[in-house]
Amino acid sequence: MYVPDSGEIYVNGRRVIFTSPIDAIRHGISLVSQIPQLIGSLTISENIILGLERFGMMANIRKVENYIREESEEVGIKVDPNTEVWKLSYTQKQLVELLRAVMLGAKILMLDEAITFLPIREKRKFYKFMRKFASQGGSVILITHKIPEALEVADRISVLRRGKYVGTVETRAVTIDDVRKMMFGERSAQITYERLPISTPDEKVVLDIKDLWVMGDYGAFSVKGVKLQVRAGEVLGIAGIAGNGQLELVQAIMGLRKVSKGRIAILANGGLEDVTNKGTGKVRSLGIGYIPDEPLKFGVSMENNIEENLAMLPAIAKGIIKWRQIRGFANRLISEFNVVTPSSRTPVKLLSGGNIMKVLVARELSIARKLLVAYNPTRALDEVTAVMVRKIIKEKVLKERLAVLLVSEDLDEIFQVSDTVAVMNSGRIVKTFPAEKAERDQVEKLMVM
Fold first, then answer.
1. Among 25, 29, 59, 436, which is disulfide-ready with 55 (CB 3.0 to 4.6 Å)?
2. Which of 293, 263, 262, 268 is nearest to 282 (CA)?
3. DSSP states along 331-399
């Protein structure tokens, strides 16, 4: 994807120069990313055949399907090649990605945050595959910001900090604190996964959802009869594996996806106002902050600088842009959230993914007066910054009585921040717990049942 400015890459002792991903694939290097790179409207076999040169353009699909069945059983991943990808769960899609990588002839398999947010039972399927792959002569590079994950599955751990190589250690010879110190130095002391103080919600309901039905992208309902309330001074955390209706639920709340049936109401002028299908402009005007699922695509304007990304929201600019005030506001957020940037006038596209996320989170927290709707708000952030963001969210809930709907595939995040935990599976809320009574094993079972 990139050509190095300096340095060298060696594969099996031989220097190589890659000018495209296909070059890497031909050398036996395959990537499985955090977001499955599959075409939803095609079947598993149709997706896989796109990358298999051995079958050519005039491939016999039956022959391909039989080959996929044989290979999947060999790898230990059972799939029906005729299943359309949109029907698969997130875990199944990642398994298909692994299968495709193996069928491409991968000798070096790179997993880029591909299993970070799966429940532990699902992760162990991948761990088993990785160990088998390595035992048969393959190599696996697991990229993760979850240190316990690296300690559980890796033989060696290499640490990068701000793009620089820090060092490599044998996993059996280090502790989690040793690795954290390599990653964060003195800042590692700020990392904690203890539950943040529980907030006692007010009686005032800020978000009221009744019998909500929302269609997905492929003509089937993704949200099925959801009923939820979020009160002032409450964090309602929705746990679930990606692809179980959380995204469509959030988009419907924000006016970005049409509701087929049911009602969404938000607190306004002392009462609940029906905002069902009234558009995102209406929802945002009521003092709602929003952290979307694809922040680089939907949360910021990549071509504009930090100041411009703040000024484009009516809640900040208020009609007439006063650039001096915007600049001061931007610099305050940069300092508060430790955004690594040359200046507030730096185009967002030149920042790292984590720093772009900091800009977005800082902006949305600053404008959320009543409600924050957040989808994986700390996904691209390092541990120190992620914990900081969660503490800031919780502080606004406790002190300013902000209501928060937090959707996250990271159970550590759900348990650390939430006052109430709801589990979403197959488009439905299957159970809701007070946070102090929510057990991790029980929640994970409900997520995959």
1. 59
2. 268
3. HHHHHHTT---S-TTSBGGGS-HHHHHHHHHHHHHHH-SSEEEEESTTTTS-HHHHHHHHHHHHHHHHH
Quick check: is 177 in a domain? no
Is residue 138 a part of any domain in this protein?
yes
The whole-angstrom separation of Cα 369 and Cα 58 is 58
Choosing from 133, 154, 175, the residue where a domain stops is: 154
Q: Residue 310 in 3-state DSSP?
A: helix
Confidence of residue 59 (pLDDT cuts 50, 70, 90): low
Distance CA 412, CA 194 (A): 9
Q: Do residue 91 and residue 215 come from a single domain? A: no
For residues 282 and 255, what is the distance between their CA atoms, to the nearest angstrom? 8
Tokens of 300: 């910021």
pLDDT reported for residue 377: 87
Residue 137, burial from CB neighbour count under 10 angstroms (0-12, 13-18, 19+): exposed
CATH number at residue 235: 3.40.50.300
pLDDT band at 180 (very low <50, low <70, confident <90, very high): confident
DSSP label of 432: E
By C-alpha distance, which of 236, 179, 198, 239 is closest to 382?
179
308 pLDDT exceeds 90?
yes
How is residue 402 written in tokens? 């902000």
Is this model's pTM higher than 0.85 or not? no
Same domain, 214 and 85: no
Rounded CA-CA distance 295/292 in Å is: 5
Question: pLDDT at position 228, please?
Answer: 96
Same domain, 213 and 144: no
pLDDT digits (tens, 9 = 90+) for 317-336: 777 889 999 999 999 999 98
Q: Report how far residue 426's alpha carbon sits from residue 447's, in angstroms, rounded to the nearest whole number.
A: 9
Identify whether the C-beta of residue 127 lies closer than 8 Å to the C-beta of residue 153: yes
Which of 134, 154, 174 is a domain's end point?
A: 154
65 inside domain? yes
What is the span of the domain harbouring residue 230? 205-448
Tell me how many domains the chain contains.
Answer: 2
Domain contains 268: yes
Distance CA 224, CA 222 (A): 6
Task: Give the model's pLDDT for residue 73.
Answer: 72
